[in-house]
Design a protein that fits this description.
Helices cover 39% and strands 16% of the residues. By secondary structure, the chain is of the alpha/beta class. The strands form 3 sheets. It has a 6-stranded parallel sheet.
């Protein structure tokens, strides 16, 4: 059994990006600039955005953090988005989700210039991804592909089962794993809350990608020997015996499933660290495209 170490792999990617940025600086070229908009004071969002800013500093990117109050109107937010769209210094930007209830998330995501949509959420980029065209792949699916590629996990002709159909992970992964390249070329089954006999389906899978957010959902009896397990789920489970008052776990019963798996991602330390690394990679790609 091999652990797909997202922490180590993300550090490798950040070091590679840092080297690229150093060359840009040596050549007198503009370095990548990532901006983030955060509306309100959601604790998890603030932590996540903070880690993105630190990651930018580490690799030598410029970064801008735009903080807006929880009472921000939709018009005010759209004005800020248009401002970033028109700013030639900004290569890519993200709008941190979730947004307050007075704001229509769909309208906000549609307002982002697809050429600066490093989250890969705009329908233009999603459509290009579905058509196997060059585009920004959403950071978490991009990170999963990178792990599979760097660990040389064979996907050709394999049966991949995706659990969960969110626009951020499940649906993109179901498209990407069936594309005509590596990683890909697998036969994909997309399962969700209305799927019947899910154990029957997962027990036939060569590769399982689960993004449910249900702690310990995937049990050992649901998995065949030597399956590849990608756990995208991340849940804080209250536990008063821990110093923080909680522990973080994934969708997979890691202790038992890992005994049967050929490759498996841990939680934490698996897919999670890859997300920010691939956001940086998308920003580097955006910068290079703008330079051409």
């Amino acid at each position: 059994m091999t652990i797909l170490d997202g922490k180590k792999t993300s550090n490798d990617i950040k070091n590679e990006i840092k080297d690229e940025v150093s060359k840009m600086k040596t050549n007198g070229e503009k370095v990548p600039h990532l901006a983030a908009i955060i509306v309100g004071n959601d604790g998890a969002s603030l932590t996540y955005v903070g880690s993105k800013v630190k990651a930018c500093e580490r690799v030598g990117f410029d970064s801008t953090l735009v903080k807006m109050s929880s009472t921000t109107s939709q018009i005010e937010l759209l004005d800020k988005i248009h401002e970033l769209n028109d700013n030639p210094e900004i290569d890519g930007f993200i709008v941190q989700l979730p947004l307050p209830p007075q704001i229509d998330t769909q309208k906000v995501l549609l307002a982002v210039d697809p050429c600066k949509d490093v989250d890969g959420f705009h329908p233009t980029n999603f459509g290009k991804m579905a058509l196997d065209m060059s585009t920004f792949i959403p950071a978490t699916p991009f990170g999963i592909l990178e792990l599979l590629e760097r660990y040389q996990v064979d996907t050709k002709g394999k049966h991949t089962v995706v659990i969960g159909r969110s626009h951020i992970v499940g649906r993109p992964m179901s498209i990407l794993m069936g594309r005509k390249s590596f990683p890909g070329n697998s036969t994909v089954t997309l399962t969700h809350s209305h799927t019947k006999n899910i154990t029957q389906i997962t027990s036939q899978a060569d590769i399982i990608i689960t993004a449910l957010g249900v702690p310990g959902f995937l049990k050992a009896e649901m998995v065949k020997d030597d399956a590849v397990i990608i756990d995208v789920g991340i849940t804080r489970v209250p536990d008063e015996t821990r110093e923080r008052g909680y522990y973080i776990t994934g969708d997979v019963d890691f202790e038992n499933v890992s005994k049967k798996a050929s490759f498996i991602t841990p939680v934490p330390g698996g897919v999670g660290p890859m997300t920010i690394a691939m956001l940086l990679k998308n920003t580097l790609i955006a910068c290079e495209r703008h330079r051409v």
